[in-house]
Amino acid sequence: MKNRVKHYREDAGWSQGELARRLGVSRQTINAVETDKYDPSLPLALRMAKLFAVAVPDLFIDDWEPQQ
Amino acid sequence: MTNDTIKKPMWRRLLLPVSAGALAGFVAAFSFLSLTDLAAGSALGQSREIGGLVGLLYAVTGIAVLLGSLNPAMGAKFLNVEDADELREQRRMLGYSSVALILLGGAMLLLALGGEAAPVSAPVAAVGAIAMVATAVVLSILMNRHTDELQRALSKDATATAFYLMLLIGGGWAIFAHLGMTAGPAPLDWITMFAATLLVAAFWQTARRGMMLRGPN
Predict the structure, then answer these.
(1) Which pLDDT score is estimated for A22?
(2) In angstroms, what CA-CA distances link B25 with B18, B28, B55, B68?
(3) Most C-beta atoms within 10 A of its C-beta, which of A31, A44, B141, B207?
(4) How many domains is chain A built from?
(5) What pLDDT was estimated at residue B13?
(6) How buried is A4 (Cβ within 10 angstroms: 0-12 exposed, 13-18 middle, 19+ buried)?
(7) pLDDT at B38
């Protein structure tokens, strides 16, 4: 799933290590999320959104649309 | 940070880890086969040799991770990490993991070399292997406290993949053996299959997520 974590992280002026520390995960996880290699759990996605003060759909982009 | 790092060409990133791994693997395998030939007077048999080699692979992998976590600057050159800091950040988890790997490899080696008409007596091999596996289990539980959700997700995926590989390889072998078309797996073969499929599955899942070549090396 595409995401804008890197964009918001850089806007905040944080390194991957700093974001990882704030979220209580490894730097490996932040890197994997930013490069679309790993979709975070719902709790971690919510924590990221809270940290950047945005809504989850602003952070994680899902192209799926409900069928009419 | 990774994305800011100038990436080397793939052949240069692979050169050192692959060369070091191949050399360490060759030396370890050659030493093991030579020693077992000397100790047993002749070859131990395929089951024991393959079991011992898989154990050796675990031990060599564990030693590489342990050395890398003790010396992150050096470890970053041959381990699959972003940089030396990643090894420093995960030192405790990697420490538990590497010692558990070495112990599991040691247990496999003891089992391969233990029993009747083998260099190590059955009681010594049994006590040693059980103690090593039990300690490895305790270390794995401790390690789990220092993992995060990505590492736990990888572990779960690898375990599931290993189960299906076991079903395919062990189950397939057992089917043919049941039908009298081949000899059945020896007890040690089952242990070897469990260990080997878990290792293959771990690499498979790491590669599937595109995380096999992470660092600039």
Answers:
(1) 96
(2) 10, 5, 11, 17
(3) A31
(4) 1
(5) 65
(6) middle
(7) 59
Q: What is the dihedral of CA B65, B69, B70, B72, to 10 degrees?
A: 120
Please tell me if residue A12 touches chain B, with a CB cutoff of 8 Å.
Answer: no
Cβ-Cβ contacts under 8 Å, B149 against chain A: 25, 29, 40-41, 44
CATH of the domain at A16: 1.10.260.40
Decide if pLDDT at B117 tops 90: no
Report the Cα B80 to chain-centroid distance in Å. 15
Give the 3-state secondary structure of residue A10: helix
> pTM score, two decimals?
0.83
Q: Nearest-CA distance from A35 to chain B in Å?
A: 9
Range of A20's domain? Answer: 2-51
- Would A61 be classed as within a structural domain? no
| Closest alpha carbon within chain B to A37 | B209
Q: How many inter-chain contacts (A to B, CB under 8 Å) are there?
A: 51
pLDDT, tens digit, for every residue of A7-57?
999 999 999 999 999 999 999 899 999 999 999 999 999 999 999 999 999
- pLDDT category of residue B9 using cuts at 50, 70 and 90: low
CA distance A53 to chain B (A): 22
Q: What is the chain A residue with the closest CA to B80?
A: A28
What pLDDT score was predicted for residue B217? 40
Is A10 an 8 Å CB contact of chain B? Answer: no
